[in-house]
TrEMBL record:
The keyword Chloroplast does not apply. Catalyzes the hydrolytic deamination of adenosine and 2-deoxyadenosine. The gene is add. The lineage of its organism: Bacteria, Bacillati, Actinomycetota, Actinomycetes, Streptosporangiales. This is Adenosine deaminase. InterPro entries: A_deaminase, A_deaminase_dom, Ado/ade_deaminase, Metal_Hydrolase. It comes from the Bacteria. It comes from Actinomadura vinacea.
Amino acid sequence: MNDRPSLDDIRRAPKVLLHDHLDGGLRPETIVDLARDGGYGDLPTTDPGGLRTWFAEASDSGSLERYLETFSHTVGVMQSVEALTRVAYECAEDLAADGVVYAEVRYAPEQHTTTGLTLEQVIEAVLDGFERGGREHGIRIGTLVTAMRHQARSMEIAELAVRYRDAGVVGFDIAGAEAGYPPTRHLDAFEYLQRENAHFTIHAGEAFGLPSIWQAIQWCGADRLGHGVRIIDDITEDEDGVPELGRLAAYVRDKRIPLEMCPTSNIQTGAAKSIAEHPIGLLRRLSFRVTVNTDNRLMSGTTPSREFAKLVEAFDYGWDDLQWFTVNAMKSAFIGFTERLELINGVIKPGFVELRGDRA
Ligand SMILES: O=c1[nH]cnc2c1ncn2[C@H]1C[C@H](O)[C@@H](CO)O1
Ligand SMILES: [Zn+2]
């Protein structure tokens, strides 16, 4: 009875999101409002519909560097406590409306201080929005604080991740252009976090290949990989077409290191050619700890449900697959074991049972 889940069905399924950027998920209407209120005059258009199209098209360049340039406009309007709280609140509302029950949402506090906010004010404003949005719309959101890999503030941001760990910050990340900025550039921050028993993920294996993944895991001790798609470069086929894992790929699979895959984003930045050719198909067949994510809902014109729907179409996935991805994500979250288990057994599994019952 594994009939093909439709987009509507998928929206009703309980979902878990581990890789979503706060500054990549604004509503176009909100960008226009905030630009007007904050005196930001550089938007390419002030028509919300036109802005939605502009972001989708400008992000479709095939280059991560060009993709990242579009963030100047979202970051540009997120420079006050009110703006940050509103964006975080709406993020919670939008994810809950799409059926997400648990999300980890990330952003780089250091990018939101251009008009004088302190890093603490930025973090507290976002936590405030997530807390209220989460409470009112029935979704649990954990924050990941990101340091930009081309900057030199990772230690400072890592210290804040630890300071705010009991207030809703559940982990740390580095993001930004990957080529030329290896993870080991921030080794001191990662070593500090490990000593503090804190969690972190690293964007690796997106615009740069295996050396980046290897450093992220074996030098820096990443708990998860942001994207990690290029792990495919360490998998070959023998003469009978049977996949053979190199040592790094085998390590990632054996240690159950979660891969935060973001199919649509990968096509826009050139990390994958198409959904049908996306490495997620093979990695799922080989039972890597794969999870499905949005990266930037605005830039990619996507939602968690749409990412799943595209995979259903490309790989003929059924409910078993969608539940498997979802449980994988929940197991890989940075909140404590008991809470993860409660969400798996109390929310995710019953939610899928109910959906399948409705369709039987
Ligand atoms: O997919 C990505 N790779 C690397 N960096 C990214 C990606 N998506 C967003 N970012 C950057 C741009 C944002 O301003 C920053 C913090 O969310 O993270
Ligand atoms: Zn990302």
